[in-house]
Design a protein that fits this description.
- The chain is mainly α.
- It has 9 helices and no strands.
- It has helices at about 5-20, 25-35, 40-70, 75-95, 105-110, 115-125, 130-140, 145-165, 170-210.
Length: about 210
């Protein structure tokens, strides 16, 4: 395999995973939920949340194919469902909803002792879209190199998310509320485009099989 398909696979994987994890969109939620914590405690939450998300994503990426075989799930079916999930999430992002989960004061108080695992690690950083993307990318890989690229992408984006959370207050101040909304809408549009590609790449083989089209 030459360099071009590898580069295209890596680029698609990075964009897909970045938009699903959405590090910029995590910042407002993280900032709000750690507002009353000390800098040391906030950094500890960021580290634990990032490690939790990394563990879950790698676990699903590495075991996704076995899960498919155990439950007799086809990759094409997952592409169709994943496309629908991505499209809905992209549409929500296009409306500039900065957080994927809404929290009230009572919920914040309930999770204050371990917000790093739930809800920050799961489902804010590592949501259903990111999990589905990790499984799909690993199933799309056709060589050990591409599988390694998928793992590298996951590690890289989680690391990027971690460092963004460490400087969350500075980032929020730098780009402002309008900047957050613009970035979120742009990523939402990209997610919707990827969603259409996933959906039809899964639907086309299913239709061909149903109607026996060569």
């Amino acid at each position: 395999m030459n360099a071009s398909p590898i580069f295209e696979f890596a680029l698609l994987g990075f964009i897909s995973m970045f938009t699903m994890i959405n590090p910029i969109g995590v910042i407002p939620v993280y900032t709000a939920m750690t507002a009353k914590l000390s800098p040391h405690e906030s950094h500890r939450v960021a580290r634990k949340a990032s490690l939790t998300a990394l563990f879950i994503l790698l676990a699903f990426a590495l075991t996704g194919q076995w899960i498919f075989r155990f439950f007799s799930i086809s990759v094409n079916s997952l592409r169709v469902v994943g496309g629908v999930i991505f499209f809905l999430m992209g549409y929500e992002m296009l409306q500039a909803h900065l957080s994927r989960t809404q929290f009230d004061d009572e919920t914040n108080h309930e999770y204050i002792n371990d917000i790093s695992i739930t809800p920050l690690g799961i489902p804010i950083i590592c949501g259903p879209g990111a999990i589905t993307t990790s499984i799909l990318l690993m199933n799309e890989s056709t060589s050990p190199l591409e599988s390694g690229i998928v793992i590298g992408i996951i590690v890289l984006i989680i690391a990027l998310t971690y460092f963004l959370l460490l400087g969350a207050k500075q980032v929020t101040h730098l780009i402002g509320e309008n900047g957050n909304k613009v970035m979120l809408r742009l990523m939402g549009l990209i997610v919707m485009v990827i969603a259409v590609e996933f959906f039809f790449s899964g639907l086309t083989p299913i239709i061909r099989e149903i109607f026996r089209i060569q």
